[in-house]
Amino acid sequence: MIKSNQRFFNFILVLFDLCVVTASLLFAWYIRFVSPFFDDGVRTMNLRAYIDLLAIIIPLYLVLFLFFGLYKPYRKQRFFKECREIVFANIIGIAILMSALFTMKSIHFSRYMLGIFFITSTVMMILERGSIRKILRMARERGFNIKYIIIVGAGSIGQTFAAKVAGDRQLGYKVTGYVDDYYHKSDKDGIPILGKTREMNEILEEYQVDEVIIALPNTSFKRIDEVIDICEYQGVKTQIIPDYFHLIQGTTAYFDELDGIPLINTRYIPLDQPLNKWIKRAIDIILSILILILVSPIMLVTAILVKVTSPGPIIYKQIRVGMGRREFWIYKFRSMRCDAAIPGEIGWTTENDPRKTKFGAFIRKTSIDELPQFYNVLKGDMSIVGPRPERPHYVTQFQHEIPKYMIKHHVRPGITGWAQVQGWRGDTSIHKRIECDIEYIEKWTLWFDIKVFFMTFKAVFESGY
Questions:
Q1: What's the pLDDT score for residue 252?
Q2: Structural domains of the chain, ranges and CATH numbers in brackets
Q3: d(CA 296, CA 287)
Q4: Long-range contacts from 342-347, C-beta under 8 angstroms, 24+ separation
Q5: pTM score, two decimals?
Q6: Which membrane topology describes this protein (predicted)?
Q7: For residue 1, what pLDDT is reported?
Q8: Cβ count near 283 (within 10 Å)
Q9: CA-CA distance, 117 to 101, in Å (whole number)?
Q10: CA of 394: how far to CAs of 230, 339, 389, in Å?
Protein backbone atom coordinates (compact mmCIF):
# COMPACT_ATOMS: atom_id res chain seq x y z
CA MET A 1 0.00 0.00 0.00
CA ILE A 2 1.44 3.34 -1.07
CA LYS A 3 1.50 5.92 1.73
CA SER A 4 1.86 9.66 1.38
CA ASN A 5 5.09 11.40 2.21
CA GLN A 6 4.05 14.38 4.34
CA ARG A 7 7.34 16.19 3.78
CA PHE A 8 7.05 15.92 0.01
CA PHE A 9 3.37 16.88 0.18
CA ASN A 10 4.08 20.08 2.11
CA PHE A 11 6.93 20.92 -0.24
CA ILE A 12 4.56 20.62 -3.21
CA LEU A 13 1.91 22.60 -1.31
CA VAL A 14 4.31 25.47 -0.72
CA LEU A 15 5.29 25.46 -4.39
CA PHE A 16 1.61 25.60 -5.39
CA ASP A 17 1.02 28.49 -3.00
CA LEU A 18 4.01 30.35 -4.43
CA CYS A 19 2.63 29.83 -7.94
CA VAL A 20 -0.84 31.00 -6.87
CA VAL A 21 0.46 34.17 -5.22
CA THR A 22 2.73 34.98 -8.17
CA ALA A 23 0.05 34.22 -10.77
CA SER A 24 -2.50 36.30 -8.83
CA LEU A 25 -0.21 39.34 -8.83
CA LEU A 26 0.55 39.03 -12.56
CA PHE A 27 -3.14 38.50 -13.36
CA ALA A 28 -4.10 41.57 -11.29
CA TRP A 29 -1.47 43.66 -13.12
CA TYR A 30 -2.82 42.49 -16.48
CA ILE A 31 -6.43 43.27 -15.54
CA ARG A 32 -5.55 46.73 -14.22
CA PHE A 33 -3.08 47.95 -16.82
CA VAL A 34 -3.51 45.89 -20.00
CA SER A 35 -7.10 44.66 -20.21
CA PRO A 36 -9.91 46.94 -21.48
CA PHE A 37 -11.75 46.80 -18.14
CA PHE A 38 -10.11 50.01 -16.84
CA ASP A 39 -10.44 52.85 -19.32
CA ASP A 40 -8.73 55.61 -17.34
CA GLY A 41 -5.71 56.19 -19.51
CA VAL A 42 -3.27 54.51 -17.11
CA ARG A 43 -1.69 51.85 -19.34
CA THR A 44 2.02 51.62 -18.63
CA MET A 45 2.57 51.03 -14.92
CA ASN A 46 5.98 49.31 -14.58
CA LEU A 47 5.60 45.51 -14.27
CA ARG A 48 9.12 45.19 -12.81
CA ALA A 49 8.11 47.19 -9.73
CA TYR A 50 5.30 44.73 -9.01
CA ILE A 51 7.52 41.71 -9.61
CA ASP A 52 10.03 43.18 -7.13
CA LEU A 53 7.13 43.46 -4.68
CA LEU A 54 6.98 39.65 -4.60
CA ALA A 55 10.11 39.71 -2.44
CA ILE A 56 7.87 41.10 0.32
CA ILE A 57 4.60 39.36 -0.56
CA ILE A 58 5.86 35.77 -0.80
CA PRO A 59 7.57 35.47 2.63
CA LEU A 60 4.77 37.50 4.25
CA TYR A 61 2.05 35.24 2.87
CA LEU A 62 3.93 31.99 3.61
CA VAL A 63 4.38 33.04 7.24
CA LEU A 64 0.68 33.93 7.48
CA PHE A 65 -0.36 30.64 5.87
CA LEU A 66 1.80 28.81 8.42
CA PHE A 67 0.40 30.89 11.30
CA PHE A 68 -3.18 30.11 10.26
CA GLY A 69 -2.47 26.38 10.13
CA LEU A 70 -2.67 26.02 6.36
CA TYR A 71 0.23 23.55 6.31
CA LYS A 72 -1.18 21.20 8.90
CA PRO A 73 -2.07 17.70 7.62
CA TYR A 74 -5.30 17.75 5.64
CA ARG A 75 -6.55 14.71 7.53
CA LYS A 76 -7.33 16.70 10.63
CA GLN A 77 -9.18 19.80 9.39
CA ARG A 78 -12.34 20.37 7.39
CA PHE A 79 -12.39 22.28 4.11
CA PHE A 80 -14.74 24.96 5.44
CA LYS A 81 -12.30 25.74 8.24
CA GLU A 82 -9.43 25.84 5.76
CA CYS A 83 -11.35 28.27 3.50
CA ARG A 84 -12.02 30.51 6.48
CA GLU A 85 -8.33 30.55 7.39
CA ILE A 86 -7.39 31.31 3.77
CA VAL A 87 -9.70 34.35 3.77
CA PHE A 88 -8.36 35.60 7.11
CA ALA A 89 -4.73 35.09 6.03
CA ASN A 90 -5.29 37.02 2.80
CA ILE A 91 -7.12 39.86 4.59
CA ILE A 92 -4.29 40.29 7.07
CA GLY A 93 -1.71 39.88 4.31
CA ILE A 94 -3.11 42.62 2.09
CA ALA A 95 -3.62 44.88 5.13
CA ILE A 96 0.03 44.47 6.18
CA LEU A 97 1.22 44.97 2.60
CA MET A 98 -0.75 48.19 2.07
CA SER A 99 0.31 49.48 5.49
CA ALA A 100 3.96 48.81 4.63
CA LEU A 101 3.64 50.56 1.26
CA PHE A 102 1.95 53.55 2.92
CA THR A 103 4.67 53.73 5.58
CA MET A 104 7.40 53.60 2.92
CA LYS A 105 5.50 56.26 0.93
CA SER A 106 5.33 53.95 -2.10
CA ILE A 107 2.26 55.69 -3.48
CA HIS A 108 2.80 54.65 -7.10
CA PHE A 109 1.35 51.16 -6.49
CA SER A 110 -2.26 50.92 -7.70
CA ARG A 111 -4.87 50.33 -5.01
CA TYR A 112 -7.22 48.87 -7.63
CA MET A 113 -4.55 46.43 -8.68
CA LEU A 114 -3.84 45.37 -5.06
CA GLY A 115 -7.57 44.89 -4.50
CA ILE A 116 -7.79 42.65 -7.56
CA PHE A 117 -4.74 40.75 -6.28
CA PHE A 118 -6.46 40.17 -2.92
CA ILE A 119 -9.63 38.78 -4.53
CA THR A 120 -7.72 36.68 -7.06
CA SER A 121 -5.27 35.18 -4.60
CA THR A 122 -8.06 34.29 -2.16
CA VAL A 123 -10.25 32.63 -4.81
CA MET A 124 -7.35 30.85 -6.53
CA MET A 125 -5.98 29.48 -3.28
CA ILE A 126 -9.40 28.14 -2.26
CA LEU A 127 -9.68 26.49 -5.69
CA GLU A 128 -6.15 25.12 -5.33
CA ARG A 129 -6.77 23.61 -1.91
CA GLY A 130 -10.18 22.27 -2.97
CA SER A 131 -8.61 20.58 -6.01
CA ILE A 132 -5.90 18.99 -3.88
CA ARG A 133 -8.50 17.68 -1.45
CA LYS A 134 -10.48 16.24 -4.35
CA ILE A 135 -7.39 14.46 -5.66
CA LEU A 136 -6.57 13.11 -2.20
CA ARG A 137 -10.16 11.94 -1.71
CA MET A 138 -10.04 10.08 -5.03
CA ALA A 139 -6.69 8.54 -4.09
CA ARG A 140 -7.96 7.40 -0.68
CA GLU A 141 -11.06 5.88 -2.23
CA ARG A 142 -8.69 3.75 -4.30
CA GLY A 143 -6.70 2.64 -1.28
CA PHE A 144 -3.81 5.11 -1.49
CA ASN A 145 -2.60 7.52 1.21
CA ILE A 146 -4.35 5.55 3.98
CA LYS A 147 -3.23 5.39 7.61
CA TYR A 148 -4.18 2.22 9.45
CA ILE A 149 -5.06 2.51 13.13
CA ILE A 150 -6.08 0.35 16.06
CA ILE A 151 -8.48 1.78 18.64
CA VAL A 152 -7.91 0.61 22.22
CA GLY A 153 -11.35 0.78 23.81
CA ALA A 154 -14.60 -0.16 22.09
CA GLY A 155 -16.75 1.97 24.40
CA SER A 156 -18.48 5.22 23.58
CA ILE A 157 -15.23 7.17 23.16
CA GLY A 158 -13.74 4.67 20.74
CA GLN A 159 -17.03 4.32 18.85
CA THR A 160 -17.30 8.11 18.47
CA PHE A 161 -13.81 8.26 17.02
CA ALA A 162 -14.47 5.32 14.69
CA ALA A 163 -17.68 6.94 13.50
CA LYS A 164 -15.79 10.18 12.71
CA VAL A 165 -13.24 8.22 10.70
CA ALA A 166 -15.88 6.22 8.84
CA GLY A 167 -18.01 9.30 8.18
CA ASP A 168 -15.29 11.36 6.52
CA ARG A 169 -13.16 9.43 4.06
CA GLN A 170 -11.00 12.44 3.28
CA LEU A 171 -9.40 12.00 6.71
CA GLY A 172 -7.60 9.02 5.19
CA TYR A 173 -7.81 6.73 8.22
CA LYS A 174 -8.93 3.11 8.28
CA VAL A 175 -9.68 1.29 11.53
CA THR A 176 -8.03 -2.13 11.56
CA GLY A 177 -9.94 -3.09 14.69
CA TYR A 178 -10.64 -2.55 18.38
CA VAL A 179 -8.69 -3.85 21.36
CA ASP A 180 -10.94 -4.17 24.41
CA ASP A 181 -11.00 -6.21 27.63
CA TYR A 182 -14.79 -6.43 27.89
CA TYR A 183 -15.77 -7.72 24.46
CA HIS A 184 -15.26 -11.17 23.01
CA LYS A 185 -13.50 -11.49 19.67
CA SER A 186 -16.22 -10.51 17.25
CA ASP A 187 -17.38 -7.44 15.36
CA LYS A 188 -18.47 -4.15 16.90
CA ASP A 189 -20.53 -2.21 14.36
CA GLY A 190 -18.63 -3.94 11.57
CA ILE A 191 -15.18 -3.38 13.11
CA PRO A 192 -13.45 -6.51 14.44
CA ILE A 193 -12.43 -6.94 18.08
CA LEU A 194 -8.80 -8.05 17.76
CA GLY A 195 -8.28 -9.08 21.38
CA LYS A 196 -7.61 -7.77 24.88
CA THR A 197 -5.05 -5.25 26.07
CA ARG A 198 -2.87 -8.00 27.52
CA GLU A 199 -2.55 -9.34 23.95
CA MET A 200 -1.48 -5.96 22.61
CA ASN A 201 2.09 -7.03 21.87
CA GLU A 202 0.97 -10.00 19.77
CA ILE A 203 -1.66 -7.87 17.99
CA LEU A 204 0.92 -5.25 16.95
CA GLU A 205 3.22 -7.97 15.67
CA GLU A 206 0.38 -9.48 13.62
CA TYR A 207 -1.03 -6.24 12.16
CA GLN A 208 1.03 -3.53 10.45
CA VAL A 209 -0.50 -0.27 11.71
CA ASP A 210 0.64 3.35 11.70
CA GLU A 211 -0.90 4.54 14.97
CA VAL A 212 -2.73 3.31 18.04
CA ILE A 213 -5.56 5.47 19.36
CA ILE A 214 -6.23 4.98 23.08
CA ALA A 215 -9.89 5.57 23.94
CA LEU A 216 -10.05 4.26 27.50
CA PRO A 217 -11.76 5.94 30.49
CA ASN A 218 -9.71 7.94 32.99
CA THR A 219 -10.06 5.14 35.54
CA SER A 220 -7.91 2.87 33.35
CA PHE A 221 -4.58 4.58 34.03
CA LYS A 222 -2.74 1.29 34.55
CA ARG A 223 -4.00 -0.16 31.29
CA ILE A 224 -3.17 3.06 29.43
CA ASP A 225 0.41 2.95 30.79
CA GLU A 226 0.75 -0.68 29.73
CA VAL A 227 -0.56 0.01 26.22
CA ILE A 228 1.80 2.99 25.76
CA ASP A 229 4.78 0.93 26.96
CA ILE A 230 3.93 -1.88 24.53
CA CYS A 231 3.46 0.53 21.62
CA GLU A 232 6.79 2.25 22.32
CA TYR A 233 8.39 -1.19 22.61
CA GLN A 234 7.04 -1.95 19.12
CA GLY A 235 7.90 1.50 17.79
CA VAL A 236 4.27 2.42 17.06
CA LYS A 237 3.01 5.97 17.72
CA THR A 238 0.19 6.40 20.22
CA GLN A 239 -2.38 9.14 20.74
CA ILE A 240 -4.94 9.38 23.54
CA ILE A 241 -8.54 10.54 23.40
CA PRO A 242 -9.31 11.72 26.95
CA ASP A 243 -12.83 10.89 28.04
CA TYR A 244 -13.15 14.52 29.22
CA PHE A 245 -12.41 15.89 25.73
CA HIS A 246 -15.73 17.77 25.67
CA LEU A 247 -14.42 19.98 28.51
CA ILE A 248 -11.20 21.01 26.75
CA GLN A 249 -12.24 21.52 23.15
CA GLY A 250 -10.46 24.48 21.65
CA THR A 251 -7.29 23.88 23.68
CA THR A 252 -4.35 23.74 21.28
CA ALA A 253 -1.28 23.61 23.55
CA TYR A 254 0.06 20.05 23.87
CA PHE A 255 -2.92 18.68 21.97
CA ASP A 256 -3.61 17.59 18.44
CA GLU A 257 -7.13 17.11 17.15
CA LEU A 258 -9.22 15.18 14.70
CA ASP A 259 -12.34 17.08 13.69
CA GLY A 260 -12.84 18.55 17.15
CA ILE A 261 -11.68 15.50 19.16
CA PRO A 262 -8.46 16.42 21.00
CA LEU A 263 -5.66 13.87 20.94
CA ILE A 264 -2.86 13.92 23.49
CA ASN A 265 0.50 13.13 21.93
CA THR A 266 2.31 10.84 24.35
CA ARG A 267 5.69 12.02 23.09
CA TYR A 268 6.40 15.40 21.51
CA ILE A 269 8.56 15.06 18.41
CA PRO A 270 9.37 18.38 16.67
CA LEU A 271 9.91 16.63 13.34
CA ASP A 272 6.26 15.55 13.35
CA GLN A 273 5.44 19.17 12.52
CA PRO A 274 4.97 19.55 8.73
CA LEU A 275 7.03 22.75 8.45
CA ASN A 276 9.94 21.24 10.37
CA LYS A 277 9.82 18.16 8.15
CA TRP A 278 9.78 20.28 5.01
CA ILE A 279 12.68 22.46 6.12
CA LYS A 280 14.81 19.48 7.10
CA ARG A 281 14.05 17.58 3.91
CA ALA A 282 14.70 20.61 1.69
CA ILE A 283 18.07 21.21 3.36
CA ASP A 284 18.93 17.50 3.05
CA ILE A 285 18.29 17.54 -0.70
CA ILE A 286 20.16 20.80 -1.37
CA LEU A 287 23.18 19.89 0.79
CA SER A 288 23.38 16.34 -0.58
CA ILE A 289 23.49 17.57 -4.16
CA LEU A 290 26.17 20.15 -3.33
CA ILE A 291 28.27 17.68 -1.33
CA LEU A 292 28.05 14.98 -4.01
CA ILE A 293 29.23 17.50 -6.60
CA LEU A 294 32.11 18.70 -4.39
CA VAL A 295 33.33 15.22 -3.38
CA SER A 296 32.79 13.55 -6.77
CA PRO A 297 36.57 13.56 -7.50
CA ILE A 298 37.23 11.91 -4.13
CA MET A 299 34.51 9.34 -4.78
CA LEU A 300 35.92 8.57 -8.23
CA VAL A 301 39.45 8.02 -6.87
CA THR A 302 38.07 5.97 -3.98
CA ALA A 303 36.07 3.75 -6.34
CA ILE A 304 39.18 3.08 -8.45
CA LEU A 305 41.36 2.29 -5.42
CA VAL A 306 38.74 0.01 -3.85
CA LYS A 307 38.64 -1.98 -7.08
CA VAL A 308 42.43 -2.05 -7.53
CA THR A 309 43.38 -2.96 -3.95
CA SER A 310 40.86 -5.75 -3.37
CA PRO A 311 38.80 -7.98 -5.70
CA GLY A 312 35.05 -7.53 -5.45
CA PRO A 313 32.35 -4.90 -5.87
CA ILE A 314 33.08 -1.23 -5.27
CA ILE A 315 29.86 -0.51 -3.39
CA TYR A 316 28.82 -2.55 -0.38
CA LYS A 317 25.12 -2.51 0.42
CA GLN A 318 23.42 -3.71 3.56
CA ILE A 319 19.86 -3.83 4.88
CA ARG A 320 19.15 -1.33 7.65
CA VAL A 321 15.99 -0.36 9.54
CA GLY A 322 14.82 3.19 8.97
CA MET A 323 11.92 5.49 9.79
CA GLY A 324 8.66 3.71 10.54
CA ARG A 325 10.61 0.43 11.07
CA ARG A 326 10.88 0.05 7.30
CA GLU A 327 13.94 -1.66 5.88
CA PHE A 328 16.14 -0.13 3.16
CA TRP A 329 19.50 -0.71 1.47
CA ILE A 330 22.32 1.45 2.79
CA TYR A 331 25.31 2.11 0.51
CA LYS A 332 29.00 2.35 1.40
CA PHE A 333 32.34 1.96 -0.30
CA ARG A 334 33.48 -1.58 0.42
CA SER A 335 36.18 -1.59 3.11
CA MET A 336 36.39 -5.34 3.83
CA ARG A 337 37.47 -8.42 1.96
CA CYS A 338 34.66 -10.13 0.06
CA ASP A 339 35.16 -13.35 2.02
CA ALA A 340 34.45 -11.35 5.21
CA ALA A 341 31.16 -9.88 4.08
CA ILE A 342 28.89 -12.56 5.50
CA PRO A 343 30.51 -12.70 8.98
CA GLY A 344 30.36 -8.90 8.97
CA GLU A 345 26.59 -9.08 8.91
CA ILE A 346 26.46 -10.34 12.48
CA GLY A 347 29.47 -8.71 14.10
CA TRP A 348 30.48 -5.23 15.16
CA THR A 349 33.28 -3.53 13.24
CA THR A 350 36.16 -2.76 15.63
CA GLU A 351 39.05 -0.34 15.19
CA ASN A 352 41.58 -3.09 14.36
CA ASP A 353 39.12 -5.39 12.61
CA PRO A 354 41.18 -7.98 10.64
CA ARG A 355 38.43 -8.18 8.00
CA LYS A 356 39.28 -4.70 6.69
CA THR A 357 41.60 -4.17 3.76
CA LYS A 358 44.49 -1.72 4.12
CA PHE A 359 42.75 0.86 1.98
CA GLY A 360 39.46 -0.04 3.67
CA ALA A 361 40.96 0.84 7.05
CA PHE A 362 41.87 4.27 5.70
CA ILE A 363 38.45 5.08 4.27
CA ARG A 364 36.80 3.79 7.45
CA LYS A 365 39.03 5.99 9.62
CA THR A 366 38.31 9.07 7.49
CA SER A 367 34.61 8.13 6.94
CA ILE A 368 35.10 8.32 3.17
CA ASP A 369 33.30 4.97 2.99
CA GLU A 370 30.11 6.76 4.11
CA LEU A 371 29.97 9.18 1.15
CA PRO A 372 27.62 7.00 -1.01
CA GLN A 373 25.00 7.43 1.72
CA PHE A 374 24.28 10.90 0.36
CA TYR A 375 22.51 8.99 -2.40
CA ASN A 376 20.39 7.39 0.36
CA VAL A 377 19.55 10.92 1.50
CA LEU A 378 18.43 11.93 -1.99
CA LYS A 379 16.28 8.79 -2.20
CA GLY A 380 14.58 9.72 1.07
CA ASP A 381 15.81 6.71 3.04
CA MET A 382 18.03 8.84 5.26
CA SER A 383 18.77 12.35 6.45
CA ILE A 384 22.17 13.97 6.79
CA VAL A 385 21.71 14.24 10.58
CA GLY A 386 19.76 11.70 12.62
CA PRO A 387 20.08 8.47 14.62
CA ARG A 388 22.31 5.95 12.86
CA PRO A 389 20.32 3.08 11.34
CA GLU A 390 20.98 -0.43 12.54
CA ARG A 391 20.73 -3.88 11.00
CA PRO A 392 17.49 -5.85 11.55
CA HIS A 393 19.35 -8.45 13.65
CA TYR A 394 20.44 -5.84 16.18
CA VAL A 395 17.12 -3.97 16.09
CA THR A 396 15.36 -7.17 17.19
CA GLN A 397 17.97 -7.77 19.89
CA PHE A 398 18.02 -4.22 21.29
CA GLN A 399 14.23 -3.94 21.15
CA HIS A 400 14.10 -6.58 23.88
CA GLU A 401 17.10 -5.34 25.87
CA ILE A 402 16.91 -1.53 25.84
CA PRO A 403 13.85 0.46 26.98
CA LYS A 404 12.49 2.88 24.38
CA TYR A 405 15.00 1.73 21.76
CA MET A 406 12.39 1.75 18.99
CA ILE A 407 11.66 5.48 19.47
CA LYS A 408 14.64 6.20 17.21
CA HIS A 409 12.57 4.96 14.26
CA HIS A 410 10.13 7.89 14.54
CA VAL A 411 12.51 9.99 12.42
CA ARG A 412 14.75 9.39 9.41
CA PRO A 413 18.13 7.85 10.25
CA GLY A 414 21.20 9.94 9.55
CA ILE A 415 24.67 9.74 8.05
CA THR A 416 25.89 11.40 11.23
CA GLY A 417 24.15 11.97 14.54
CA TRP A 418 24.30 13.46 18.01
CA ALA A 419 25.42 10.14 19.48
CA GLN A 420 28.23 9.75 16.95
CA VAL A 421 29.74 13.21 17.49
CA GLN A 422 29.62 12.49 21.24
CA GLY A 423 31.84 9.46 20.63
CA TRP A 424 29.20 6.71 20.80
CA ARG A 425 29.94 4.97 17.53
CA GLY A 426 30.66 1.37 16.51
CA ASP A 427 31.50 -0.99 19.39
CA THR A 428 30.51 1.43 22.18
CA SER A 429 27.67 1.68 24.71
CA ILE A 430 24.35 1.20 22.91
CA HIS A 431 22.55 2.56 26.01
CA LYS A 432 24.43 5.87 25.76
CA ARG A 433 23.79 5.94 22.04
CA ILE A 434 20.04 5.59 22.50
CA GLU A 435 20.03 8.29 25.20
CA CYS A 436 21.64 10.68 22.70
CA ASP A 437 19.25 9.61 19.92
CA ILE A 438 16.17 10.26 22.05
CA GLU A 439 17.59 13.60 23.19
CA TYR A 440 18.08 14.57 19.54
CA ILE A 441 14.57 13.46 18.54
CA GLU A 442 12.87 15.33 21.40
CA LYS A 443 15.00 18.50 21.20
CA TRP A 444 15.40 18.81 17.44
CA THR A 445 15.86 22.27 15.97
CA LEU A 446 17.49 23.44 12.77
CA TRP A 447 20.36 24.82 14.84
CA PHE A 448 20.80 21.42 16.51
CA ASP A 449 21.29 19.90 13.05
CA ILE A 450 23.78 22.60 12.10
CA LYS A 451 25.70 22.01 15.33
CA VAL A 452 25.91 18.24 14.75
CA PHE A 453 26.90 18.77 11.10
CA PHE A 454 29.92 20.91 11.96
CA MET A 455 30.85 18.82 15.01
CA THR A 456 31.12 15.87 12.62
CA PHE A 457 34.13 17.45 10.88
CA LYS A 458 35.84 17.95 14.22
CA ALA A 459 35.13 14.34 15.20
CA VAL A 460 36.49 13.04 11.88
CA PHE A 461 39.79 14.93 12.07
CA GLU A 462 40.40 14.56 15.81
CA SER A 463 39.39 10.98 16.50
CA GLY A 464 38.98 9.23 13.18
CA TYR A 465 35.19 9.29 13.41
A1: 38
A2: 6-141 (no CATH), 147-266 (3.40.50.720), 274-463 (no CATH)
A3: 14
A4: 345/318, 345/391, 345/393, 346/393
A5: 0.55
A6: Multi-pass membrane protein
A7: 35
A8: 17
A9: 15
A10: 19, 22, 10
